[in-house]
């Protein structure tokens, strides 16, 4: 019964979305206030209806209602409660329901916080947002209905893929979707602005917080996914340049570019048409990502339930929305004239360079991701594009970006001088070179990867610190009174630097040992010595496990006792490795237990992973930077004052 | 329960990729073998290298790579040997020949185009004169009045 209610509210939501897509658009065009006013309540009702459907599906998972097909296929009565709930979006149908829920949430958020927007612009934004909603609600209802019943409900379900039964992965998809779908706001604002034929500083000020929020969520989502891969897959890989990962990375790169170009629109009224294009493309790549993930046209390590019919549907959505938006863009972009004037050496130019590098980097990721498909279709060659290609083709852009970033960040608007800017950065440069040289001296005949990564990372962090120092007028007391946006910027840029250090040292300096160890045996791993103390077989709530006890010591002193496991999930008939990790600031100890060998003893894999946590710490710092900027007083004052003004104006009407 | 336990011990498939018994005694050769197997794709898996994969064919390929390395082949010869048998699908780094040249030059060419576009734009912006702001429309002047009244 509850499932039918969910199904019903989902179909109602489609109806509301249709109304919200059509009525306010006509109202804004003809100037009918009554029709314009439909947008806000419709957006709110839509989110309530979809939330009700989502709650109904969650209820089915929590109560193990095996009359629903998705529940049978993805749940099991013995599964821990956390994963019953996470199982709601751990499958195609449920995750698409989450997709439309978040889409509607963003629309409703715009309706609630958009009181200060010109009513026509708000009506058009909400109408475009609802059009996307119509498309995806139709997709869910027609091709991926989560409320599909089975004729003969079985006694128990097939269980969720055990790899997905993990807290890191439970929250990876919602964050990723918040990011993907958050970019729909930038898209809706861009299309609305094209319809109005007007883009100004106020528009950019409205778009930026949404893009910032989307980018922040994407950062967290990607970091969670990579962290999960690191500890779950059993050998400490954190990024595979897999199509599905690339699908989330391209929108991230473009959202980062969009954030920066919107600054130029807001402060200097330039780069308008490029910013609009970028907003369209950023969401376009979100849709492409959804298509890659859901259609299965590109083989990936991520096994999703996919089917060609769904792929074609999403491709049609992609073609209609991006094709339509680009056509509108071609017709209207010339009407958006730039106003700001600036020299070749200026903050504006630096931000243009940022956009060039990020956009071309996203393009490289894109062409590498779709090339196997292209090559097969047009040249009849079955080939692969993987990590070695991306490492060579993508990395140079990030290196140039990191070199330019601290300089560009402190260049003045309009016109600047490189020499003047470089002087205060001398300290940061010296520190970066010194640390790079130290790293080079410490390592023994290995690649330049780690020294270069460390130098660039230090340059970014020290450059951000220098910038804060300059902003505060070299007065420590004023540091605390700097606007949060300044701190946000410094935090995000430093976070990037820390990620650079983490990735380069982890890739260059990892130590690995693979061997057969007998119980009681001690062996060396770099400077550490590892003892396989014990191995025992036990069982968990819904799995069997082989658990080893391993002691790690450094120069005879005990460091940690770790319990790596090898689990077997009988319902899904799948083994998983649970690596045991001792986290540290400068290194992780990463231990894995393997199979029992014929001649006694166990296969063991042990690693020292230097600076591994810096990758995720840096990502968190980047997201935190976004959050700090988002909470800046200037946004709140602008939004609050406008809401107040509107509220005050109402009684007079 | 007994049956499940039995299934557990029968079906416990290997979860490690490179097994201890595969490793060559010469660390230099082993390091080369690892580097080679990190760029070769497991032919039956979904985008894993043979170095990461647990599939039996990946293990066979790792052993083949080690055989060839021990036999004195260069890295390129080993890779060619595998490509001859499995096709260029196994290469994670596509060869820069034929149509693949497009893939390799796409990034740099795009960068050049983007830089030229940016340079043109910057020159235009530098030469332009600051345009006068557009006058407020009706709605906006009303809003401005409201705000000023407060």
Keywords:
heterodimer; A: 653 residues; Four Helix Bundle (Hemerythrin (Met), subunit A); six-stranded antiparallel beta sheet; 11% strand; globular; disordered C terminus; B: 150 residues; mainly alpha; Helicase, Ruva Protein, domain 3; disordered N terminus; membrane (chain A); lyase activity (chain A); transmembrane helix (chain A); Heme lyase CcmF/NrfE family subunit (chain A)
Sheet with most strands of chain B: none
* Spans where pLDDT lies below 50 across 5 or more residues of chain B: 1-15
User: How much strand content do the residues of chain B show?
Assistant: under 5%
Please name the fourth-level CATH homologous superfamily of the largest domain in chain B. Cytochrome C biogenesis protein
Mean pLDDT of chain B: 81
Protein name (chain A): Heme lyase CcmF/NrfE family subunit
Pfam families (chain A): CcmF_C, Cytochrom_C_asm
GO molecular function, one term (chain A): lyase activity
Membrane topology (chain A): Multi-pass membrane protein
Give a short synopsis of this structure.
The complex is a heterodimer of chains A (653) and B (150). Chain A is of the alpha+beta class and 653 residues long.
How would you sum up this structure, described in words?
- In chain A, helix 10 packs antiparallel against helix 11 (272-295), helix 13 packs antiparallel against helix 14 and helix 15 packs antiparallel against helix 16.
- In chain A, strand 8 (580-582) and strand 9 form a beta hairpin.
- Chain A has helices spanning 2-30, 33-36, 39-62, 69-74, 81-86, 92-113, 119-143, 167-196, 201-232, 243-268, 272-295, 308-332, 347-379, 387-410, 418-442, 449-471, 476-479, 484-509, 612-630, 633-652, and strands spanning 511-517, 522-525, 528-539, 544-554, 557-562, 565-569, 574-578, 580-582, 587-596, 602-610.
- In chain A, the strands form two sheets. In chain A, strands 2, 3, 4, 5, 6 and 7 form a six-stranded antiparallel β-sheet that branches. Chain A has a four-stranded antiparallel β-sheet with strand order 1-10-9-8.
- Chain A contains 20 helices and ten strands.
- The model of chain A is unreliable at 640-653 (pLDDT under 50).
- The two termini of chain A are 46 Å apart.
- Chain A has 653 residues and is α+β, with helices and mostly antiparallel strands.
- Chain B is mostly helical and 150 residues long.
- Chain B folds into two domains: 2-90, Helicase, Ruva Protein, domain 3 (Orthogonal Bundle), CATH 1.10.8; 96-126.
- Chain B has six helices and no strands.
- Chain B has helices at 2-11, 27-37, 56-70, 75-86, 100-127, 138-149.
- The longest helix of chain B is centred in the C-terminal third of the chain and has 28 residues, at 100-127.
- The model of chain B is unreliable at 1-15 (pLDDT under 50).
- At the A-B interface, helix 13, helix 14, strand 1, strand 7 and strand 9 of A face helix 1, helix 5 and helix 6 of B.
């Amino acid at each position: 019964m509850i499932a039918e209610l969910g199904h019903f509210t989902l179909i109602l939501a489609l109806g509301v979305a249709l109304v919200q897509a059509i009525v306010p658009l006509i109202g804004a065009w003809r100037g009918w206030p009554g029709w314009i006013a439909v947008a806000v309540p419709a957006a709110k009702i839509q989110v309530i209806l979809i939330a009700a459907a989502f709650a109904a599906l969650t209820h089915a998972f929590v109560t193990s209602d095996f009359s629903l097909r998705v529940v049978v296929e993805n749940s099991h009565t013995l599964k821990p409660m956390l994963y019953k709930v996470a199982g709601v979006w751990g499958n195609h149908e449920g995750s698409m329901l989450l997709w439309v829920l978040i889409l509607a949430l963003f629309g409703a958020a715009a309706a609630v916080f958009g009181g200060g927007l010109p009513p026509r612009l708000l009506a058009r934004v909400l109408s475009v947002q609802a059009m996307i909603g119509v498309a995806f609600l139709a997709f869910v209802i027609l091709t991926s209905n989560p409320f599909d019943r089975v004729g003969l409900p079985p006694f128990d379900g097939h269980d969720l893929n055990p790899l997905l039964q993990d807290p890191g992965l439970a929250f990876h998809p919602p964050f990723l979707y918040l990011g993907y779908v958050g970019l729909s706001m930038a898209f809706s604002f861009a299309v609305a602005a094209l319809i109005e034929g007007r883009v100004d500083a106020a528009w950019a000020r409205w778009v930026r917080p949404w893009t910032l929020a989307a980018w922040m969520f994407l950062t967290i989502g990607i970091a969670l996914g990579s962290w999960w891969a690191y500890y779950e897959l059993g050998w400490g890989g954190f990024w595979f340049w897999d199509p599905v990962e690339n699908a989330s990375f391209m929108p991230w790169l473009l959202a980062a570019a969009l954030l920066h170009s919107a600054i130029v629109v807001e402060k200097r009224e330039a780069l308008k048409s490029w910013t609009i294009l970028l907003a369209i493309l950023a969401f376009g790549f979100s849709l492409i990502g959804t298509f890659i993930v859901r259609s299965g046209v590109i083989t990936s390590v991520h096994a999703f339930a996919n089917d060609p019919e769904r792929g074609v549907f999403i491709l049609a959505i992609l073609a209609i929305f991006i094709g339509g938006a680009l056509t509108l863009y071609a017709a209207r972009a010339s009407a958006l004239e730039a106003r700001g004037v600036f020299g070749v050496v200026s903050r504006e130019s630096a931000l243009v360079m940022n956009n060039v590098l990020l956009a071309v980097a996203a393009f490289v990721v894109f062409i590498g991701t779709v090339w196997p498909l292209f090559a097969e279709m047009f040249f009849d060659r079955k080939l692969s594009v993987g990590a070695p290609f991306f490492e060579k083709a993508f990395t140079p852009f990030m290196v140039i970006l990191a070199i330019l970033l601290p300089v560009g960040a402190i260049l003045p608007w309009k016109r600047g001088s490189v020499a003047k800017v470089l002087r205060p950065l001398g300290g940061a440069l010296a520190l970066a070179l010194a640390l790079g040289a130290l790293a080079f001296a410490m390592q023994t005949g290995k690649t330049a990867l780690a020294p270069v990564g460390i130098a660039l990372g230090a340059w970014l962090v020290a450059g951000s610190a220098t910038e804060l120092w300059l902003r505060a007028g070299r007065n420590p007391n004023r540091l605390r009174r700097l606007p949060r946006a300044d701190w946000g910027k410094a935090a995000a840029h430093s976070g990037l630097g820390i990620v650079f250090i983490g990735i380069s040292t982890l890739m260059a300096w990892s130590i690995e040992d693979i061997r057969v160890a007998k119980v009681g045996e001690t062996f060396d791993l770099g400077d550490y010595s590892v003892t396989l103390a014990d191995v025992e077989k036990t069982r968990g709530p819904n799995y069997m496990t082989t658990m080893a006890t391993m002691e790690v010591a450094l120069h005879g002193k005990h460091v940690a006792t770790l319990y790596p496991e090898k689990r077997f999930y009988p319902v899904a008939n799948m083994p998983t490795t649970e690596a045991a990790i001792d986290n540290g600031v400068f290194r992780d100890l990463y231990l894995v237990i393997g199979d029992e060998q014929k001649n006694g003893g166990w296969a063991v894999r042990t690693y020292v992973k230097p600076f591994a946590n810096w990758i995720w710490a840096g990502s968190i710092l980047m997201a935190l930077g976004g959050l700090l900027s988002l909470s800046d007083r200037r946004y709140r004052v602008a939004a609050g004052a406008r809401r107040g003004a509107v509220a005050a104006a109402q009684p007079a009407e | 329960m007994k049956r499940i336990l039995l299934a557990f011990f029968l079906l416990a498939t290997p979860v490690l990729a490179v097994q201890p018994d595969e490793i060559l005694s010469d660390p230099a050769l082993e390091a080369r073998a690892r580097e080679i197997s990190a760029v070769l794709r497991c032919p039956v898996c979904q985008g894993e290298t043979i170095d990461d994969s647990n599939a039996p064919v990946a293990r066979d390929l790792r052993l083949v790579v080690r055989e060839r390395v021990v036999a004195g082949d260069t890295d390129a010869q080993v890779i060619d040997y595998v490509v001859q048998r499995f096709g260029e699908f196994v290469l994670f780094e596509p060869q820069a020949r034929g149509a693949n040249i497009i893939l390799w030059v796409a990034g740099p060419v795009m960068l050049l185009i983007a830089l030229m576009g940016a340079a043109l734009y910057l020159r235009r912006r530098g030469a332009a004169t600051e345009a006068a702001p557009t006058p407020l429309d009706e709605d906006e002047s009303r809003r401005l009045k409201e705000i000023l009244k407060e």
